Amino acid sequence: MQAQKKEEEEQDLQEIRRRLRARGICVIIPTYNNVGTIRQVVTDALRYCADIFVVDDGSDDGTTAELRALSDIHLIHYDRNRGKGYALKTGFRTALQAGFAYAITMDGDGQHFAKDIPAFLDANDRWPGALILGSRKKEGISRSKGSNFANSFSNFWFTVQTCRSVPDTQTGFRLYPLRKLWGYRLLTARYEAELELLVFAAWHGVAIHSIPVDVYYPPAGERVSHFRPGADFARISVLNTLLCVLAVVYGLPCWLWRKVATFLRTLGAFLFFVFFMMVVITPGVWIYVHCGRMTERKKWRLHLLIYHAARIVAQKIGVPGARYHCKVSQNVNFDKPSVLICNHQSHLDLIYLLSLSPRLIFLTNDWVWHNPFYGFLIRHAEYYPAAEGIDALMPHFRSLISRGYSIAIFPEGTRSFDGRIGRFHQGAFHVAEALGLDIVPAYLYGTGRVLKKRTYHLAKSPVYMEVDRPLLPSELHAMGDTLAQARHVRHDYLRHYQAIKDREEQHV
Predict the structure, then answer these.
(1) pLDDT exceeds cutoff 60 at 229
(2) Which residues pair with residue 461 across a beta bridge?
């Protein structure tokens, strides 16, 4: 029993190490004269993360020898003590050159616990591209009055300088998005560099979140501290004065420009959409539909029009803020009728899916069916409202399949509020089974970040779509009934989508 538990624990640790590497996360440990703790700190961190960068900031107490005796770490050493800010800059630069997107920083004095690394991984998965602070739990912890005052002092000035509030600005246990380290080359050399990083991130709109972490403070006689109250407080006071001035002449303009840019990006996209649909597409389709009899050839040309318009928007003009790329498996043949399933995050999803093929027919909800901008187009393109029910729509599906079209269905049934993939309904699998069709899984990432549900502004994010190989009827039948098929396919879908998410979120 004990052996099985140990094996399961090791498997969990291996999965954490795999996920950290998949998301481009390393650990950076700056250290100076921590001979008594550094070996244990690094050893504990290696249990959770295979990519450890230790920056030895000119130690002269035996720390360097301890580190050189350790394997499986990237050791950066220089002879003269340069300060924590310099050590962080060196670590960041090395990690970026090695291709990492994020770095978790830990102190070398043993006050941080490596067991909290998975919490940073979870936070990064929830808030990709954000700076994550490990807010130290203070219950039952003995801290000096100077340390408590310094933290409160720093928190106050951070709020003044950024109009944001965080519970612990002095924590050294953080996760940094390395490609968003605004102004890191200008950092001061000492430990107040961490405050600078936080302030510059806030000014440039980097999301900042806090998670609770445990902390250990050794007894007063055992603590190794390089904090010099007089000199360091004086230096921090000068820094805060400078940051307050910069907040007015630099931070505020950055905030205003970001708001204006978001507004203009959203307004431009909306005006283009209204003009394109109300002045060009909808009137053109109305004239086309009412001029002569609606033959099969005319219907096909209408689908070609929709397809080319979607391709122009998605690939040529581009949705503002969305850097789009797409990958389609060589096993996918859109000329062969099938059921295409895709996760649903945003109103933008349809644009990218329509750009795949002119032979796709979509199920829509009622408000899309009656939409004043493009409802006329939707109805005449033979898209059907999902509210009618799969069984009632089956005769239409048979007709479409016989004419060479594929049916595209969002198996979740509605847009995701937070980007997570919901339960798969059985409808798509029922259609595939009844009509003997393949199911083609498509994965769409990023549209929910560009235009979230219940928001009305466009943000910036990469958008990626991947169309994977078809699932054959024999494969689906082997999974069981349609309920079992929905569960099994969703399980595999989640795993594949997470791999896409891990890769793409290194660039958000």
Answers:
(1) no
(2) 322
